[in-house]
Each structure stands twice: as structure tokens, then as C-alpha cells.
Amino acid sequence: MSTMAVTLDQTIAQKQHSFFSRMFASQTFWVVIAVILACIFLSFATDAFATQKNLYNITRNITFVAIIALGMTFVIITGGIDLSVGSVLCLSSMVLAVTMHAGYSIEIGILASIATALAIGAFNGILIAYLGFPPFVVTLGMLSIARSLAMVASNNTVVFQFGPDHDKLLALGGGAWVFGIANPVLYMILLALITGFTLRWTKFGRHIFAIGGNEHAATLTGVPVKQIKVAVYMISALAAGIAGIVQTGWLGAVTTNLGTGMELQVIAATVIGGANLAGGVGTAFGAIVGAALIEVIRNSLGLLGINAFWQGVFIGGAILLAVLFDRIRNFRRND
Amino acid sequence: MTFQPNVIPDPSHGEARRLVAVLELTNISKHFGAIQAVNDVSLSIEPGQVVGLMGDNGAGKSTLVKMIAGNFRPSHGSMQMDGKELILHKPVEARQHGIEIVHQDLALCNNLTAAANVYLGRELRRGVGPFRILDYAAMYKRAGQIFAELKSETRPRDLVKQMSGGQRQAVAIARTMLSQAKIVLMDEPTAAISVRQVAEVLNLIRHLRDQGIAVVLISHRMPDVFDVADRVIVMRRGRKVADKRIASSSPEEVTGLITGAIEQV
User: Fold this and answer.
1) ipTM of this predicted complex?
2) What does the mean pLDDT of chain A come to?
3) Which domains does chain B have, with CATH numbers?
4) Which of B109, B134, B135 has the highest number of chain A CBs within 10 A, making it the mutation to test binding with A?
């Protein structure tokens, strides 16, 4: 009997792969290696890279894409996509700017901005979950609608005066309250921790993976699929809204072309970081690392004196390379 | 809600004693518009009994099972569970009454572990109030114990993606053992797997039976039904045309009943 118990415990403890074999098999791991190697190379190849100012800029530039990529990760794990994030970022920024410009406090401005983002996310989610619209189409429509609403809200002007709490807003986005780390970076780290925790340790997170793995199975086993789908689009829009608020504070001005094309950068970051557009796979860390790789590529091209027109080629190449790793791994497994 | 576990029938009395039915269907009919899918079917299922439900495509097997599973409501007739009226509005209610289903496609998520699949929709959590996190350890442990009870080699931490057909069946069946199921409905569990794995699945069914659970096995495969079932019910064109003990029937007779060569017994 005691031998039985031991065997059972061993079976329960038995892992398919060791920690290291899992790490080497992970796309995220290789992207981290790529980022580190690129940083080491750039530190030696250029004088400007490893300066405090440049590192400060890089880390801060990563954050806006990374924060939205965290929200996008939820959507992509369910097998969906959210193309509206760039426009939602713009609209949230504009709502904040216009509200504060009209003389309201920063708290009210942020509240209005977040409420707008959540409402848009809920709208997307309800159309997708309850009416069965394809996510691509719904969010493509919203990409157009949200930016248009931002133009309406501001009459297509640039807003750079934020009323009585002007300085508070600029400090929120542009300050460095802890150890000289740019504030946006702190927000990103905090949100990444929350995302990682939610995905790994909550029932909600588990159900998100289940929906991406087999939506039909999730429905049959009693997972509230529709509510969860609405929630993930709200989270994605919320992330875009938060990024919009932070970016407004950092830039000190909002224009209606803010965040144009950002959805593609965000999706690229998520995919480079190991999320699978077919659903069922993705991590918070991957989203950050993906955003980091894109920013390091952009930064290094500038520092190495390569024409900025080449940027797209390198970022596109990184996307393909990252997914290539995944394919090679799959081929090997199928053999 | 709590469930009284079923009394496990004493096999020595088996044949002679009439057991209290766990589920009783009386004059059940279901029509969809003009189509009569199930017509005036009555049957009773006893604890610890494996019932083979056979019939050609369109004979009404699936419709019948979907009414028991809470997917459809009967147009006529009534269902009773443990002597009490049973009315189901949705599948979740069937589960609350101890009716579990193993779907034909198994309803598994390939990207999750065996334990995660077993507990899908009923995850265990620990913590206080709203601060509750998934209890991985408890879920791995209980899933491992269930697999051991089922004599399956499935390991709780393995991803379902990399499992054989038999192991996948074990994961789907393990789900039914989380709560105190009274009836397990299995939809074609042996349709798409290898011969060796079929034996594995039939053993899983026997383990369920030995715990006093009634199993309804919907199958096209005559050898499986005659191997594992105590009783066979044959449906043809929405009607029940036979309901007899396996020992007093034969594959030839059942084939005749399915095709209509034998009208009714």
C-alpha cells in the first residue's frame, strides 16, 4: 500500500518537461536572448546606447506599446484580435484632454477617459460575444469610429492646455517618482505583474486559456464564455485608455493622429513575445519582451546611422523570425 | 446541494431483485415541428448498470440523450430521478442532479493540462473572500487520484495535446467523477480510437459501474456493447423497439432490430 501511495505521488508530481527544457523550447526565452545580445552589441558598437539618457528613453518608449500589448494578450489568448487599440488610445487621450481643458480636475478627466475606454471595449465585446460578429470586423470598424470621435471631441485641434491640474498631469506621465525610473515604466511593471497574476492564478485567467484552446469545450463545461469575451475586450480597451492617459501626460499635448498604426506595433509585440494568434497561448512577460525587442531595433537603427526607412524591414523581419522559431519547434515535435 | 450516494447493488442478488431506478422516463416524446424525433419512449435506468443505447443514424438516440442531459425539454412525458420529478432547463441543472455527459468530441482543451481539463468550469480555489487563487496542488492531487482509480496512466500535469485517444477519454471520464455522479451518458466513446484504446475505455466504463454509477453508452459498435453493457436498448425511427438483458439477446438480433428486419421484441 505504501508503495502505491509513493507511485501515485510521483505520478502527480511528474512533469512532462524539466524547467530548462521548457525554457529552451519557449519563444519568449529566445526573444529575451535576442534583446540582451542586441543590447550588448550596441553598447560596444555605439557610444550613445549605454548612456543613462538613452536607456531612460528606450525604457519609456517601450511602455506605451507594452501596456497595450498586455491588454491585447488577453484578447489574443481567447483567439480574438483588437484592431481598435490605437484609436481608443487617441480617443481616451482626447477625452482626458478636453475634460481637463474645460476646467475639470485630473481625477474627473481620468475617470471620463477610463469610462470611455471601457464603454468602447464593452461595445466591441458585446457585438463579438453575443451577436457573433468576427472580432476583426468589429474592431476594424471601431478603429475608424473611435478616431473619428476623437476628432469630433476636439474639433480636430491640438490640445496642450489641461486646465487647473495641468502640472499634475504632466508629472503623472513625465515624472520619475521612484529611483529615477520613468513613471510610465513603473505603471508598465505594475500592470505586467497584475496581468501575469491574473493569467496564472485566477479562474478568469484559466477560462481565457480554455476559450482560446477550445471554445466549444469551454461552453460545454459551463465556462461563462460570453461574459469573459466581453471582459477581455474591455481589458484591452482599458489598457489602451491607460496608455493614452500616461502618454498624454508625457507628451504634454494631444493630437488626433496620436496612436495611428499603433495596433500593428502592439500585435507585433505580442506575437514576437510568443502569443499565438490562433489562441490559447500568451504571457504578460512575452508582451513586454516583444515590445522591448521592437524598441531596441528602432533605437539601434537610429544609433547605427541606418536610414529610418529600413525600420519596417527589420521589425517585420523580427516578427517572421520569431514565428519561424515556433514553426521549427512544431516541425520537430511532429517528427 | 448535496447528493446521497447511490446504494451499490449487491451483485449476488443482481438478476432477481428489482432495483430502485435512478432515472425513469415515462412516455417521453420530442418533436421538432412536424418531425417526430422521439416517440413515446419509456425506460428506467438502475444504479450500477451499463445500458447500451443503439440505433441507426436518426433513430432518436441523440435526441433522447439530449433530453436527459438538459439540452432539450421533452414535448410530452415526464422524467423522474430517484422517484422525484425531474425538470431540466439547461445542461448545468442536469449536472447539479448528478447527470454527467462525456461528449463525443470529449470537449477538451489541448492547450491545458489534464488536471486543468478535468476541473474546467469547476476550478478549485483557495484564499479568503474575493482574494482567491487557483489551488493547483489540490487539483493535481485529486486529478491524479481519479486517474489512479480509473487505472489510467494519464498524468495530471501532462498537456492534453500530447495524449493518446485512450488517455483523452480518461480525462473526459475523470470529469464525471469530480462530483457524485449518478448517471454518466457517453456519446460514442469508442468511435475514433484504436483497438487497444477501446479496451482501455471499456475498462473505464466498468470502473464507473463498480462505483454504483449508471452508464448509458451510446454506440454503433456491437462488440463494445456486448462486451460491457448489462442491457441493450434499441431505437428505430424514434421508438424504443427493444429493451432486454444482454445475456438474453445476440448481436444478430440487435442488428435485425436496428435495421428493421426484426420489427419489435
Assistant:
1) 0.86
2) 90
3) 36-259 (3.40.50.300)
4) B109
